[in-house]
Write a structure and sequence with these properties.
Elements (H helix, E strand, L loop, with lengths): L13 H27 L4 H11 L9 H8 L3 H13 L3 E6 L5 E6 L1 H34 L20
Antiparallel strand pairs: 1-2
Helix pairs in contact: 1-5, 3-4
Length: 163
């Protein structure tokens, strides 16, 4: 059973499978690049993802563990462990806030800002090269044999994790 509320066609053609496989391949190629770039910079891939999520939080979102867990689609305790490792490495710091000091906000250190900036420039360069193939694969997957029949009623980026 597919857990989506999308109206779907009952059959697929070979072109649908080929388009989905190509999209998955292009996504995986970029993710492999990103994972290797993270390790070269001395970070685990999830640590890089957390730094990027922290920097890219919407302006009205406080940089707390819960918000970062949601953005990464991982459990709260996993996010705590990532923050612990990043803080121990000197990339981020915790700041207690609120009257009872229970709220903990995460912020960058200069070292974390520098590493993320360098990695993001490298990623943007890679996207200039690989991006057109990724976009073409996405378009092909969306268009293959007429698409999947409708729009989701959940806006992108607002789905809750199912972990």
């Amino acid at each position: 059973m597919i857990p989506y509320n999308l109206p779907m066609k009952k059959s697929l053609r070979l072109a649908d499978y080929e388009a989905l496989a190509e999209l998955r391949y292009q996504i995986r190629r970029f993710l492999h690049f990103s994972e290797q770039a993270s390790r070269t910079a001395g970070l685990e891939p999830r640590q890089h993802q957390l730094l990027l999520a922290l920097k890219g939080l919407p302006k009205d979102t406080r940089p707390r563990i819960g918000e970062l867990a949601e953005r990464l689609q991982i459990q709260h305790h996993s996010t705590v462990e990532l923050v612990n490792r990043l803080a121990n490495g000197g990339y981020v710091r915790r700041q207690r806030r609120g009257e009872d000091h229970r709220e903990v906000l995460i912020s960058f250190t200069p070292k974390g800002e520098k590493v993320l900036r360098e990695m993001s420039l490298h990623h943007k360069s890679e996207l200039r090269n690989a991006g057109p193939m990724l976009v073409a694969a996405l378009k092909r997957a969306m268009q293959a044999s007429g698409g999947f029949g409708g729009k989701s009623d959940t806006p992108a980026g607002k789905k809750k994790r199912t972990e």
